[in-house]
Write a structure and sequence with these properties.
Layout (H helix, E strand, L loop, with lengths): L28 E8 L5 H16 L4 E8 L5 E2 L11 H6 L6 E5 L3 H4 L2 H7 L4 E2 L4 H8 L1 H10 L8 E4 H6 L1 H11 L4 E5 L9 E3 L6 H10 L2 E6 L4 E9 L5 E10 L2 H6 L3 H5 L5 E3 L7 H14 L5 E8 L5 E7 L9 H8 L4 H20 L1
Parallel strand pairs: 1-2, 1-4, 4-5
Antiparallel strand pairs: 2-3, 6-9, 7-8, 7-9, 10-11, 10-13, 11-12, 13-14
Amino acid sequence: MGAAQRHHRAGGAHAARSTSGAWGTGGSVNVLVVYGGESDEHDVSVASGEDVLASLRSSGDIDVTAALIDRDGRWHRTGEGTSAGAAARDVLDDLEPGTVIFPVLHGGWGEGGGLQREVEHRDLGLVGCGSDAAATALSKLQTQRVWAQAGLDVIPTLPVARTEFAADAAAVVRRVRQALPGDIVVKPDSGGSSIGVHMVSAGDEPLPALADVLARDETALVQPRVIGREVSIGVWQDATGTPRATAASLLQLPADAEAGGFTYAHKYEGAGGVLLIPAGLPQLAALQRAALQAFDALGCRDLARVDFFVTSDGAFVLNEINTMPGLRRASHFPRLVAAAGIDYDTLLRSLVAAALVRDSARLT
């Protein structure tokens, strides 16, 4: 399509049109599931992408193809008789107009607005956030600033730039410890899946944690450790485009995680983290309202998981948002939505339908 492609700026969070009848009478719908990617969360994305593909392929009226992005950023159209890699733009340019892109990608270019911007410049549908919301939400620091401006409670955060650390690491450590002398958390600004997150006790040196995080990301975030329970609320948009909040999940941690944090191993390698869904919490209604506010403040769309800390006195504070949460059939977000009565296959189909409605509205 090249220069003749229509520019598309994705709409906001409240596309108040029904997804009923989105398939119309025109037969099957074309969907490209994109998964893998260059980020540290490549393997998590692959696991999610494979389950999404299996689910959508089980439907008789969705024509599903796949693009696996390798760790070098090359796209592979799996199942089409070739293993040769291609550039993103070449793959997207070859798609039929109206194809829905389902980006099951975590972190980096694929979740942070790069892919979304490429899709928005073509006659293609898109599941999930538009490019502006995706870019903001991928940065934990920018997300916190937006939430604070919306009047939501966030964790005090000290950012450390890679350039600042490289210039004078000792001065950075002094500044960190002057501002935050107690137990701290050091984590990447744009990372996910608990990769690169460090718990540093009050008496320990934060230099190694900062060095590790800044090898992964241009910005490290340093926060006081919040002693509280980790609680999550899912948000998804129903058939009218209205955001709905799920019940809560409560993370029950093994003893080692209490001291060292909830790690990638606890999430994905069977190291003992257990999610209680639904969790009976007296703050549920307030948590749901805050999750919807957080979703709306960022201009999110379709789906997200909002994470909180709930302290012993019953107060809570926002931690992070994930605008493309893990989508394995047994993942956290699908389980939250299932507790609201929406099964996995129905959830994925509704996300595709919502993208179709937006795309058809844009072209009329």
